[in-house]
Write a structure and sequence with these properties.
The complex is a heterodimer of chains A (about 375) and B (about 325). Chain A is mainly α and about 375 residues long. Chain A has 16 helices and four strands. In chain A, a hairpin with a 3-residue loop joins strand 2 and strand 3. Chain B is an all-alpha fold and about 325 residues long. Chain B has 14 helices and no strands. Classes of the chains: A mainly alpha (about 375), B mainly alpha (about 325).
């Protein structure tokens, strides 16, 4: 065979790919976004500097970034556990709403109990409500083979409408009906101040909400379970090859349903944190403003579905989301954040695809074939 | 207008056609892409890209209304096709995961992405539409009882969608390229061995599918709404994807399904106009809940036996790996 550059299929998946792919993807995304910005008459470097300042360096920027990073951490984990197994739960948005409804309900019902007890109950209530909402697509997928992509997505719209119904269109338990003005201008009941979730404060400029710390614990838990337990092993086998998993006697259906429930529970805790950490009421507009469920997919993909990486990435994308809200205006159209997230996701996908191949410079056939650690791959056209 | 044509039944059917038309157009596009083996979950994003482009075009185009409307539809098609090209490149050429790539497309172009961005850049918020597409009045024919308003008093895009259903059905089942397309979707390796350009077919049908989604989106800004708001398709793209499944990947069934879901979308308006006082959220949720129920029915054994899922749907094809 002649000398020259060849592109061939990579057999293993080297460790550096895990870091290089997201990093290169971010750089490529920045370049492509710059082209979009230039085309619409904006100055890319200017916009990037503003994002950086609003996301990280301005007074109070880090605290605000944590406000957006916290729900994204939970929806990111929700997407990561499911997508890793090729269970396509894109219902994180609706499961987050369900979690907020559950946690607010529990928080309101238990208002006379001591605060810490209520907080624990709210976390559990949010997780259960999120899991229950995810159970619909999860059980249908596991036992009837119903396409979970479409069912979980449709339920996002239903959950969003349910939020509006509870606060704006009914005399529900979540709505404040005590005063005359509240009957005319719908407002939601607030949970008792003793049940506000605590914060970890590093001076005025950096306040870390309890939800984010809880999210780190959940991420560590997921990492441990997927790495060390038989369930984690079954999950990875089912993700790679459902047929082989069934042949090996694994409970495929039960694991799929379980992963969907867990995924919903994580998004549900994200919803609970929206009530406990930030809003302290069931706020339909606030919950829907940022599309946390959908952005969670970007977070999970950029973290390559690794729960620990999701923690870091949620902070980065949280900063971008924060900047988006802080800078919104004619110079910084609201849709720009979605454009950047979409381009990041495209770049990650392209990077993943390209990292399956490698470019080899061959001087001659023999030197490559006998080199240790480089098994000859198949010849692949670029 | 006579009494029959103002009755609830006729009103419901005409509104079913009105709300079903964007679903039908986008569904036909997705059907073509899926027949080639490419699952494109970016329909919602492509529809919104088309919707915003069409709205901008009618504002920006000087000259007579009919010309501006034609240009708007064509530009919407181009916008949808451009979006689909990204998905085709990622999923066909790079063989990336089609599900994530489609989701990425919806995030990129969707309600909080490029369509919203362009709405701001083009300054469309709060502006009334410069031109709207109106129904064609065929005189005495349009006044016929029942069939008049349903068959002879529609807008041009409704008639175009009927022609397209017949054209796509004819293309799929009566032409050589249609046969090739079906074989690419069923067994790309066999199609490749017969000399059919698999990559070319997949690119072409994904891009045409995107163009139809863009046109479907333009129906929202040219007919259904007279202003631009972020995310005004409200999940129609996702319902269109579900419709392709309900339709067993057949254009004729797609027409029936689209009008059924159009009926559900219009039901709230029609009944509330007649004094039915259920919460509006109930009617708004109906199409989404019915989609879930229909998907469940589709996954029962009875429906599974007659399913027409293209065997290679969602799987990339690489010649050296035997597909």
């Amino acid at each position: 065979m002649s000398r020259g550059i060849r592109v061939e299929r990579r057999l293993g998946n080297p460790r550096w790919v895990a870091f290089v792919v997201p990093l290169v993807a971010l750089i490529v995304a920045a370049i492509i976004t710059a082209v979009v910005l230039l085309a619409s008459g904006h100055q890319p470097l200017d916009v990037y500097r503003q994002i950086y300042q609003a996301g990280f360096t301005q007074n109070g920027a880090l605290s605000r970034t944590f406000v957006y990073a916290t729900p994204l951490l939970f929806t990111g984990l929700a997407a990561a556990v499911a997508f890793r197994m090729k269970v396509w739960n894109i219902g994180g948005e609706g499961q987050l709403y369900a979690g907020a409804i559950g946690a607010a309900g529990v928080g309101l019902a238990l208002h006379s109990l001591p605060g810490p007890l209520v907080i624990v109950a709210m976390v559990i209530g949010g997780a259960l409500a999120g899991a229950a909402w995810a159970a619909i697509p999860g059980l249908l997928r596991a036992y009837l083979r119903t396409n979970e992509i479409l069912t979980s997505l449709m339920l996002n719209y239903v959950a969003g409408l349910l939020l509006y119904y509870l606060i704006y269109d009914s005399a529900s338990y979540w709505r404040d009906m005590t005063s005359a003005s509240a009957k005319v201008f719908p407002t939601a009941k607030s949970i008792d101040a003793s049940a506000y979730w605590p914060q970890l404060s590093f001076g005025a400029s950096m306040v870390v909400p309890m939800g984010f710390l809880l999210g780190i614990l959940v991420a560590l838990g997921i990492w441990t379970v997927t790495r060390t337990s038989p369930t984690g092993f079954a999950m990875s086998v089912i993700g790679e090859s459902p047929g082989a998993a069934t042949y090996a006697g694994m409970r495929t259906n039960r694991t799929i349903a379980g992963v969907m429930l867990a995924s919903g529970a994580f998004a549900g805790i994200g919803g609970a944190s929206q009530v406990g950490d930030f809003g302290h009421t069931l706020d339909p507009r606030g919950l829907q403003q940022a599309g946390y469920g959908y952005t969670g997919i970007v977070v999970a993909a950029l973290g390559r579905y690794n729960p620990l990486a999701v923690v870091v990435v949620s902070f980065l994308i949280g900063a971008l989301t924060n900047a988006g809200f802080a800078l919104q205006g004619p110079d910084f159209p609201a849709g720009l954040v979605g454009v950047i997230e979409g381009i990041i996701l495209f770049s990650v996908l392209a990077g993943e695809a390209l990292s399956r191949y490698r470019v080899v410079w061959r001087r001659s056939e023999r030197t490559v074939d006998t080199a240790p650690g480089t098994p000859a791959g198949e010849l692949v056209a670029p | 207008m006579n009494a029959v044509n103002a009755s609830l039944a006729v009103t419901l059917i005409t509104s079913a056609i009105m709300f079903g038309t964007p679903l039908l157009l986008a569904g036909l596009g997705e059907l073509l892409a899926e027949r080639s083996g490419v699952l494109n979950l970016g329909v919602e994003g492509m529809m919104l890209a088309g919707a915003v482009t069409a709205f901008w075009a009618v504002q920006a185009m000087p000259g007579p209304a009919w010309l501006a409307l034609i240009v708007a539809v064509l530009l919407a098609a181009a916008a949808g096709a451009a979006m689909a090209l990204i998905h085709a490149f990622l999923s066909v050429t790079l063989r990336a995961n089609q599900i994530v790539s489609g989701l990425a497309l919806t995030i990129f172009a969707g309600a909080a992405g490029l369509s919203s961005y362009l709405g701001v850049v083009w300054g469309l918020a709060g502006k009334p539409a410069a031109h709207q597409m109106s129904n064609i009045d065929m005189g005495a024919l349009s006044d016929l009882p029942v069939v008049g308003p349903i068959l002879f008093h529609q807008d041009p895009m409704v008639y175009a969608s009927w022609v397209l259903v017949i054209a796509v059905a004819w293309y799929l089942y009566r032409t050589r390229p249609g046969l090739n397309l079906r074989s690419v979707g069923e067994s790309p390796a066999a199609a490749d061995a017969m000399g059919i350009p698999v990559t070319g077919y997949r690119y072409a049908h994904t891009v045409v599918g995107g163009a139809l989604a863009g046109v479907g989106g333009s129906y929202f800004t040219l007919v259904l709404s007279n202003q631009w708001t972020d995310g005004l398709t409200a999940g129609a793209g996702w319902i269109a994807i579900a419709l392709v499944i309900f339709a067993f990947w057949r254009p004729g069934y797609l027409l029936i399904g689209a009008y059924f879901f159009g009926l559900l979308s219009g039901l709230g308006f029609d009944l509330q106009a007649r004094g039915v006082a259920w919460p509006s959220e109930f009617f708004s949720a109906l199409p989404y809940v019915m989609t879930v129920i229909a998907l469940v029915i589709m996954s029962t054994g009875w429906a599974r036996r007659q399913l027409g899922t293209p065997a290679a749907l969602g799987t990339p094809y690489a010649r050296e790996e035997g597909g």
